[in-house]
Design a protein that fits this description.
It is a single chain. This protein has 421 residues and is of the alpha+beta class. It contains 14 helices and 23 strands. A hairpin with a 5-residue loop joins strand 11 and strand 12. The protein binds uridine-diphosphate-N-acetylglucosamine (UD1). Uridine-diphosphate-N-acetylglucosamine (UD1) binds next to helix 1, helix 5 and helix 6. Uridine-diphosphate-N-acetylglucosamine binds next to helix 1, helix 5 and helix 6.
């Protein structure tokens, strides 16, 4: 098993370019199931999760060509989609559930398997089922995790989501593009990745309106066609580099970042005393001008503070002046990094969804684990500012979601290397 070795090498300096968004490219690749014409996707990050999604598409009958150097993937789904894809493949990644809606609306049946993925709470998918059932599908889930679905044809209807689930919004939106009549999704997720998917679907000939608000309206059409699309920049990757710069009291320039997707992260960094400036070249993050201070954070669906930035921000808060409170409202069990940060000397108390962080701590290098993707990024950030060597295991989580993470960190002057055990 590979691990990262991280050592403090002072403040991060220099510039880094953000890759295409993992959470946008996965649903966009799933959307290519909706047509048998060729789709070309650009700004595709070279990630394990993308590889898995491409394998799933091949298993569904697609011809998939990948050009990692150019960041391009081309997909041509066959005219008949395999409705019974491989169990092991689907269970490799939670986002595999995103192919359910597209297969079902094309073939009127689909068998998928409950996904695995990051172990951050229960992560049920009943809202995906609820929406598809309301559109006229039978859905049965057995004890082995098998999900069997069948319909006489999906029909548009009004669907209220009890929680603005990102995945459920995407699955229903994709199914609705080819359903008969109009689907209205109420209390829809508003993440930028939903907007990117809607833009792509519209390029394919779909009629999706309102993405980015809490009501999305999809008028079903007969057929979708192939289309070309460039994926938006990854706001969580950008945020991770911003926090890494703050953690090392560094000064970096981040290119290919959309600050309007990152309003709460930028606001919270500024509250800590980090200077964030938009320039023509990119976003400057300067944490070398004054001591950083505490702030409180509550994670929320977009446009609130992203749960995917909670762990990294918590690492930073262990080192600033004063105490901070973090409240995680999106996932019920997303504090697995707390134990790891404590091994490094952090002082954190957790009570249910609330964590109290005592700042001013000098972290010490330790042997720690990446317990999930973002928790892993948090441990790298902690290691960059800790005294001594940090050995981070289970880094496959990080490689699922950050493109060239080691190389990009090294480019900013970080002392980090990947070693095979
Ligand atoms: C997506 C992101 C993930 C991010 C999350 C929240 C992708 C590939 N992943 O995950 O990085 O952390 O959004 O911003 O885009 N829920 C239910 N029932 C459902 C669906 C969800 O109760 O049917 C709950 C989940 O248990 C969780 C919360 O809603 O507590 C958020 O889940 P959701 O928005 O669906 O996240 P994902 O789409 O899985």
């Amino acid at each position: 098993m590979a691990k990262f070795i991280i050592e403090n090498n002072g403040p991060l300096k220099g510039e880094v370019t953000v890759s295409g968004a993992k959470n946008a490219v996965l649903p966009i690749l799933a959307a290519t199931v909706l047509t048998d014409e060729e789709c070309i996707i650009d700004e595709v990050p070279d990630l394990k999760d993308v590889e898995v999604m491409c394998s799933i598409l091949r298993c569904l009958g697609a011809e998939v060509k990948t050009y990692p150097e150019e960041g391009r993937v081309s997909v041509k789904m066959s005219s008949k989609v395999n409705t019974d894809p491989d169990k092991e493949l689907l269970q490799k990644m939670r986002a595999s559930i995103l192919v359910l809606g597209p297969i079902l609306v094309r073939e009127n049946r689909a068998t998928v398997w409950l996904p695995g993925g990051c172990a951050i709470g229960e992560r049920p998918v009943e809202l995906h089922y609820k929406g598809l059932r309301q559109m006229g599908s039978d859905i049965e889930v057995d004890d082995s995790g098998k999900v069997s679905t069948e319909t006489d044809g999906l029909k548009g209807t009004e669907i209220y989501l009890d929680f603005p689930s990102v995945g459920a919004t995407e699955n229903i939106m994709m199914a609705a593009t080819l359903a008969e009549g109009t689907t209205i999704i109420e209390n829809a997720a508003q993440e930028p990745e939903i907007v990117d998917l809607a833009n792509y679907l519209n390029k394919m000939g779909a009629k999706v309106k309102g993405a980015g608000t809490d009501i999305i309206r999809v008028e079903g059409v007969e057929k979708l066609h192939g289309a070309e699309h460039s994926v938006i920049p990854d706001r969580i990757e950008a945020g991770t580099f911003m926090v890494a710069a703050a953690m090392t009291r560094g000064n970096i320039l981040i290119k290919n970042m959309l600050p309007n997707h990152m309003v709460p992260v930028i606001a919270k960094l500024r509250e800590c005393g980090v200077v964030v400036e938009e320039t023509e070249l990119g976003v400057m993050v300067k944490a070398d001008e004054k001591p950083l201070v505490s702030t409180d954070i509550k994670t929320l669906p977009y446009p609130g503070f992203p749960t995917d930035m909670q762990a990294q921000f918590m690492a930073l808060l262990t080192t600033v002046e004063g105490s901070s409170i973090v409240i995680e409202t999106v996932f019920e069990n997303r504090y697995m990094h707390v134990a790891e940060l404590k091994y490094m000397g952090a002082k954190i108390k957790v009570d249910d969804r609330c964590a109290i962080i005592e700042g001013n701590k000098k972290l010490k290098g330790a042997r720690v684990r990446a317990t999930d993707l973002r928790a892993g990024a948090a441990m790298v950030i902690a290691g960059l500012a800790a005294e001594g060597k940090t050995e981070l295991s289970d880094i496959y989580h990080i490689e699922r979601g950050y493109e060239k993470f080691v190389e990009k960190m090294q480019g900013l002057g970080a002392k980090i290397s990947r070693e095979e055990d």
